[in-house]
Design goal:
Helix content of chain B: under 10%
Structural class of chain B: mainly beta
Strand content of chain A: over 45%
Number of strands of chain A: 11
Largest interface: A-B, 21 and 25 residues
Strand content of chain B: over 45%
Distance between the termini of chain A: 41 Å
Number of helices of chain A: 0
Radius of gyration of chain A: 13 Å
Largest sheet of chain A: 6 strands, mixed
Structural class of chain A: mainly beta
Order of helices and strands of chain B: EEEEEEEEEEE
Oligomer: heterodimer
Order of helices and strands of chain A: EEEEEEEEEEE
Helix content of chain A: under 10%
Number of helices of chain B: 0
Radius of gyration of chain B: 14 Å
């Protein structure tokens, strides 16, 4: 069965600092991997996705993630945090056989001025 | 292209009542999923409908039900409301064609408060 683990329910960084949100998955078949962002009182918005091909994926708002098969990871990074990045971030996995996303518990990103 | 819409956005109900929430997916999307989101439990999958049939189901009691219409619009119903049903209910739609990565597009949610 597939599963997703997000390390850290809360991550706090200073404005301008590197953002690193961790996601590890388990899947017995090649995975599709997603990061979603949720701003307060809103639905979830797709940030970026990995399906096949290039393992470094760029998304919206300057975020990127790298698929590392050997480490079963798909960590989300941004070189320089902005106050507007404060939100909750969710990692999710699916595959070509399952019409269902398996979700991580989410990580709240806090930006300190 | 219009996004996923959910109505109503906010709802206040009393324990024991029932409620119906509505979701209109993105045009062309045949899959609609429902989620419950609470601070304590996070994002919990309720069920998924595809072409008017329930295809996947989460671990929720039978008080939670749903349906999908021929135009892919979906409703979910919660009967005999309990205080613990207070949550943000999210609807997501997907193209869900075979071989296409299953990415979902979310509506803004319906905030249900049970008093």
């Amino acid at each position: 069965a597939q599963s997703v683990t997000q390390l850290g329910s809360h991550v706090s960084v200073s404005e301008g600092a590197l953002v690193l949100l961790r996601c590890n998955y388990s899947s017995s078949v090649p995975p599709y991997l997603f990061w979603y962002v949720q701003y307060p009182n809103q639905g979830l918005q797709l940030l970026l996705k990995y399906t096949t091909g290039a393992t470094l994926v760029k998304g919206i708002n300057g975020f990127e993630a790298e698929f590392k098969k050997s480490e079963t990871s798909f960590h989300l990074t941004k070189p320089s945090a902005h106050m507007s990045d404060a939100a909750e971030y969710f990692c999710a996995v699916s595959d070509q056989w399952n019409y269902q996303l398996i979700w991580g518990a989410g990580t709240k990103l806090i930006i300190k001025p | 292209k219009a996004g996923v819409t959910q109505t109503p956005r906010y709802l206040i109900k009393t324990r024991g009542q029932q409620v119906t929430l509505s979701c209109s997916p993105i045009s062309g999307h045949r899959s609609v999923s429902w989620y419950q989101q609470t601070p304590g439990q996070g994002l919990q999958f309720l069920f998924e409908y595809f072409s008017e049939t329930q295809r996947n189901k989460g671990n929720f009691p039978g008080r939670f039900s749903g349906r999908q219409f021929s135009n892919s619009r979906s409703e979910m119903n919660v009967s005999t409301l309990e205080l613990g049903d207070s949550a943000l209910y999210l609807c997501a739609s997907s193209f869900a064609d075979r071989g296409v990565p299953y990415e979902q597009y979310f509506g803004p949610g319906t905030r249900l408060t049970v008093t």
